[in-house]
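Entry 14. Ran structure prediction on the chain below.
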Amino acid sequence: MKRRPVSAFSLSFLDIMFCGFGAVVLLVLILNHDTVKARSERFADLRSEVVKLEQEVLVGEDRQVTLRNSLEAADTELQATQGATERVIEDIRELKIEIARMAKETQANRAHVNQLTSDLKSLDRKKKRLGLQAPEAGEQGARVHRVTGDGDRQYLTGLKVGGKRILILVDASASMLDETIVNVVRRRNMDPAQKRTAPKWKRTLATAEWLVSNLPASASFQLYVFNTRARPVLATGKDRWLKAGSSAEVEGVLNALRKQVPEEGTSLYRAFAVARKLSPAPDNILLVTDGLPTQGRNRPKRTTVSPEQRLEHFSAAVRNLPAGIPVNTLLLPMEGDAWAAAAYWKLAIDTQGSFITPARDWP
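Output, structure tokens:
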């Protein structure tokens, strides 16, 4: 068979076609490479932007949590502040009511004082007219224990020391060491011997001695000291009455009293409870103290006490006091207890007793 002749034109045409196709493919590859490269660079830029935005979102969420916690804390503090404000407002309201009540009592007390002053002047005039003198020598001789005084300072006008059974209550708490809170704190850390020599406590002992020395010789008596508890100074005389006319018992009580050491707080409730324990009951109470009690029947859980709480402890103690017994109070000075005088003055009125704040140089 005869071979077909090859045309040079046909080969050239195919070469041209393949070359053109190759050129197109090469051009496409070049263009596509640039596009892919540009796309990769753009994608990288966008990816970094996304990462940055994600980090900002995380930071924002953390900040949101912090702000939410701060808001919750602020709400809690606001609620606590509102509660405290309400309590303060309620305390102020109660204090205003108490002040108003005490103001009324003060007015009544002032009127009573004026009446007593008028009566006292009238009695003085009668005494001058009748020429009454000081107790006679025979009466002085009936006393088994004598104390000396500076003229009229030996006597107290209005104090009722009479009766058949006389209970003497002497405050032996730490406040009896001094008249100021700072000095009380300083002295209560001293040793017992130094506490016994504190000027205020020595004055308390002199006051108690004066009371015992001026009791009727025919009377019975008992002397208790009290702080957070009440106890008789003479251990052998517990739960029984002593004889004011017995020199041995009087001197024994006074010697035992000089050995006492003022310390701890004050429970007037415990002191007045003694009047319920003694049999027969006392018909007169002589109280030597310097202010309102710092605790009631039980020891307080807190170490501080407010004036309102002290007044509540006083009221509870008075309610524990047997009815019909006059209370004669000798109030010694103590700073920071403004309500004490009014409270003990009212106690004297309610029990038909007396209330006295002696001069600093008495007895």
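The chain has two domains: 16-132, 144-356. Will compare against last week's run tomorrow.
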